[in-house]
């Protein structure tokens, strides 16, 4: 699932972060209130769900403003904490999106840094229908907008994804710490969007705390490594394949710096077993492979294996690994497996937080490439998504 954002690194220009679409009319203007979160709720024009899974670029529309007062505690020289506590129940398809704006320090002109993000996010399904929600933290520089409908002026510094294919609660603990802090300003937006894909009712809830402080240091850089690929059906996600032997290798060109941390989460999920999606897995187990590599000097064959939309074509998984050069640095591996209980359901969402701090930062030269490899184990239809960021110091 994807929210349109300002580019912060590009897998050969990352065209999917600049998807155009028809904008609907602004519903209602909101009033900016200093030190108060301003709620901006956006939705999309009705869209075929199959096309939505392939595009998923957010078009935002304002609905209301001025919710509860969540003033942060700021003391000179001490870290402050900003709380995000929000819960929305919806049966609306088309993935409505919600943006809460916060004004801390001296707003968008204040240089600041994030030291930690902790708490919990959850997605509760009241029916056995597939749903998902994307959570995002962003900031603005220069001027703090009353609303930034397209988020074109926003800088995204964190995102997590939750999926739920059954009538249950899907939740994830967030416990991130940044020895090398994330860049931000005093103009902060907490964004989430999602819901049922075809039918049902869900509750999306967040209870998070952001620890931050003013900064005079040179800012670190956040690079987006996220992607979403479907297996076991011919449509959806950024690309899809029905051949269980295939995988996808996503190349992301990098700027110069030192890789100090990778963080975020991964969600690899079945669908709900209805005719709206591909089949559920069978057998004893199913799972997914998620591997991250740093390739010095460029993306090699991975950069040549892109379709007209800029997404990788499916390739035999064994071939993808053979394309890795001998000097490729293996940054992280997140294999996920679900053992199917005898007589039990094969539906499940395998979700895992990612936090890899590099005690010896990896030197990254301009033009080096991060490759993210997506693969699968077993059969059936699954939606494999990473919401992982790389943090580079100067």
Describe the model.
- With 394 residues, the chain is mostly beta strands.
- The chain folds into two domains: 218 residues; 175 residues, Jelly Rolls (Sandwich), CATH 2.60.120.
- The chain contains three helices and 21 strands.
- The strands form four sheets. Strands 10, 11, 12, 14, 19 and 21 form a six-stranded mixed β-sheet that branches. Strands 13, 15, 16, 17, 18 and 20 form a six-stranded antiparallel β-sheet that branches. Strands 1-3-8-5-6 form a five-stranded antiparallel β-sheet, with no helix packed on it.
- About 18% of the residues have low confidence.
- N/C terminus separation: 30 Å
The strand count comes to 21
User: Which descriptor suits the 3D outline?
Assistant: globular
**What is the CA-atom radius of gyration, in angstroms?**
20 Å
SS field, number of helical segments:
3
Structural class per helix/strand content? mainly beta
Would you list the SSEs in sequence order as H and E? EHEEEEEEEEEEEEEEHEHEEEEE
Tell me what portion of residues adopts beta-strand conformation: over 45%
**Main beta sheet:** 6 strands, mixed
Q: What average pLDDT do the residues reach? A: 84
Give the total of domains: 2
Helix content: under 10%
| Unreliable residue stretches | 4-73
Descriptive tags:
394 residues; mainly beta; Jelly Rolls; 6-stranded mixed beta sheet; 6-stranded antiparallel beta sheet; 3 helices; 48% strand; globular
Quick structural overview:
The protein has 394 residues and is mostly beta strands. It has helices at residues 49-55, 301-304, 317-322, and strands spanning 38-42, 80-90, 97-103, 111-125, 131-140, 154-164, 169-185, 187-196, 202-214, 221-224, 227-231, 240-241, 246-253, 257-270, 285-295, 315-316, 329-333, 336-339, 349-364, 369-377, 382-393.
């Amino acid at each position: 699932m994807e929210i349109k954002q300002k580019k912060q690194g590009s897998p050969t220009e990352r065209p999917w972060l600049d998807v155009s679409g028809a904008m609907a009319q602004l519903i209602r203007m909101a009033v900016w209130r200093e030190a108060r979160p301003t709620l901006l709720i956006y939705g999309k024009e009705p869209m075929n769900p199959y096309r939505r899974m392939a595009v998923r670029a957010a078009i935002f529309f304002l609905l209301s403003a001025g919710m509860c007062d969540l003033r942060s505690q700021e003391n000179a020289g001490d870290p402050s904490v900003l709380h995000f506590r929000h819960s929305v129940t919806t049966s609306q398809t088309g993935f409505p999106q919600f943006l809460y704006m916060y004004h801390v320090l001296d707003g968008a002109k204040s240089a600041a840094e994030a030291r930690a993000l902790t708490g919990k996010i959850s997605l509760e399904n009241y029916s056995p229908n597939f749903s998902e929600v994307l959570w995002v933290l962003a900031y603005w520089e220069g001027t703090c907008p009353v609303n930034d409908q397209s988020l074109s002026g926003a800088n995204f510094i964190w995102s997590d994804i939750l999926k739920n294919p059954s009538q249950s609660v899907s939740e994830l603990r967030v416990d991130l710490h940044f020895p090398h802090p994330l860049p931000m300003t005093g103009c902060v937006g907490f964004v989430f969007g999602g819901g049922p894909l075809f039918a049902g009712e869900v509750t999306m809830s967040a209870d998070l705390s952001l620890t931050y402080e003013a900064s005079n240091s040179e800012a670190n850089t956040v690079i987006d490594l996220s992607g979403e690929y479907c297996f076991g059906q011919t449509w959806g996600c950024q690309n899809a394949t029905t051949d269980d032997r295939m995988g996808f290798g996503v190349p992301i060109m990098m700027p110069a710096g030192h890789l100090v941390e990778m963080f975020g989460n991964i969600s690899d999920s079945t669908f709900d077993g209805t005719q709206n999606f591909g089949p559920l897995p069978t057998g004893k187990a199913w799972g997914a492979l998620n591997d991250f590599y740093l390739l010095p000097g460029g993306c090699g064959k991975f950069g040549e294996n892109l379709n007209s939309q800029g997404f990788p074509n499916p390739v035999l998984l064994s071939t993808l690994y053979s394309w890795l050069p001998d000097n490729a640095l293996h940054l992280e591996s997140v294999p996920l497996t679900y053992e199917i209980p005898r007589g039990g359901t094969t539906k499940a969402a395998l979700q895992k937080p990612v936090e890899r701090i590099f005690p010896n930062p990896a030197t990254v030269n301009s033009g080096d490439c991060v490759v993210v490899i997506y693969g699968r184990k077993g059969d059936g239809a699954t939606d494999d998504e990473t919401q992982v960021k790389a943090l580079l110091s100067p």
